[in-house]
Amino acid sequence: MPIPMQPVITMQMRRFSYWESELPPEPLPARELPRRVDILIVGAGFMGRWLAYFLSKRTQPARILVIDRDRFSYGASSRNAGFITCGQVSEMLADVEHAGQDRVIETFMQRREGIAIAREALPDFHIDPCGSTDYDPVTDDKLALMAKLNEAAGDEIFSVRAARIGQAVRP
Each residue of 148-157: pLDDT tens digit? Predict the structure, then answer.
């Protein structure tokens, strides 16, 4: 006996993030742009601005123009609160499945090098290696990857310690 079909009710619901509701994009005034530039960078977030910065340091600086649809760093760069990181073990463990452990370790080391470059290039920013907390469950796979990453860095970058969450202590 066939099961009667039930009508499907769909709802169009859109939840706005804090950034969309509290900091909507501001319309930018129309501007006359230069007719000629050597390098045009589209996107004024961290990557676009860093690229412009390093290109400007070349022995023969080019005429560089950075453009964005919104104010500088309004997009993804502002949403991550301006932090720079080597990444989280849980994310890197997922990347191991797609890219392999060697590539994940190589990327981790490149991220560390990027942080060192930022510290050297921008000493006035006082980049603080404050660390971060990841409350993911600790697994043998994560511990093994942490050991490999620490070995590659020659330092204890990742460690496991008990954490207090409310009244509970989580090992």
Answer: 999 999 998 8
Helix (H, G, I), strand (E, B) or coil at 165: strand
Burial 52-65 (b: 16+ CB within 10 A, else e): beeeeeeeeeeebe
Residue 118 and residue 115: Cα distance in Å, rounded? Answer: 5
The span from the CA of 111 to the CA of 107, in Å, is: 6
Q: How is the chain split into domains, by residue range? A: 35-83, 89-125+133-170
**pLDDT tens column, 100-141:** 999 999 999 998 998 888 888 777 766 666 666 666 788 899
Q: Taking the model in full, what pTM does it have?
A: 0.59
Both structure tokens of 69: 């649809």
For residue 21, which amino acid is it?
S
Distance CA 89, CA 161 (A): 14
